[in-house]
Amino acid sequence: MRKGKKWPVMLLALILMVSLSACGGGSKSGSGTSEGTAEPAATTDDSSKTSSDEKIELSFWSLGTTNYEELGKEYTKEHPNITIKFQNTSDQTAHHNNLTTALSAGSGAPDIFMLEIGFMERFITAEDKFYNLNDLGAKDIAGNYLDWKWKQGSSKDGSFQIGLPTDIGPTVVYYRTDLMEKAGLPTDPEEFGKAIDTWDKFATVAKQFKEKTGKPFADLTDLVYNGVRDQSDGEIYFSKADGSFIGDKNPMVKKAYDFTVKGIQEGWIGNTLLWSPEWGQATNDGGFGVMLGPAWMAGNIKTNGPDSSGKWRITQLPEGAGNWGGSFLTLPKQGKHPKEAYEFIAWLDSKENQLESFKSKGLMPSIPALYTDAAFTGFKDDFFGGQATAVEYGKAAQRVKPVYYGPLHDQTDTFFKDALKNVLEKKADPAKEWDAAVEKAKTLAERS
Fold it and tell me: pTM of this prediction?
């Protein structure tokens, strides 16, 4: 998942990114390593000619909660000459900083690295540090995956593919049926979805809900803002062509800001912080009506709201969908066995195994053929009242537009969310806060 990052963490990340760039980052530069930095060991022709009896160990740095280790055991039973050594962490920043350090040093990188989309821009231009999966056969299976997801791991011209897409995080509306009933609103997912299928209708329903229940309709400003912002077409804050700040010219950023301000001023957005204990308690106690979040947010709702089991349902976001989170399986060039590593990740990321990952750990598949597969659509979740939640996630996934984030996305996003927080908590002037956020973003872009 992608969370906001504090300044010291981002400063470290930027320093490491500069180090990575200096040691031979994009394919355009064609330059070698910086002085005093060793080039990663080249893969010899022999590495692609290993016999099926040769003992091969593949190192795999995985991230978060997956079933990859269990699937790896299945794979090695069928391939007894292969051993897979896993190193798992839940700390996204440390996980990616460790790879940056290894690539900069010229040694220490794993054969397989799980790359989260929030860190993609740090590595996507370092083509000389990763195997091009198109050369290993990925171009032949590209059509199996969601187009927008595949493009997130591709170079601008599509010739270089840094990783195979794994899970995704399409955004949906999670809502409380007990509270909707009290407000006189529909509780059926399809009917409730129709009642809020435009942002204007969403706001109208939100006001009605607040008037009838006395509770905020939406949980907090950040997720409302995200819900609109992520429906941008192609870019959010930065130009993919030259990296310049374009957030003030993106109509969806201004729409997201103004819509969230509207919710604040009309009183239907709650005043809690994302990931805070108060937010978790409100999730459990019915402190708000809806939460706009990605597929993986279901796990947080279940963890935070054990007493609310059976009271939640899922429907579609108004006017489209966004995506928050998801990963790729990449092969750093320091690995000595790209052929065997690719064969494993292609197997791990197949339709059958993406289905297993969804069933066991809730990883939303990036292979759309599963969205109509009975084994997927038939999955029902008792926490969500027995709803076939996979169906709703599948609908949302196919509404997502690919967007470019850029390496300064998180810091820039914080400027606008802090502005909204000032409007909410300090009754600050929305127009002045917008102008201040834009100025901060422009300054950051100019200095980077």
Answer: 0.81
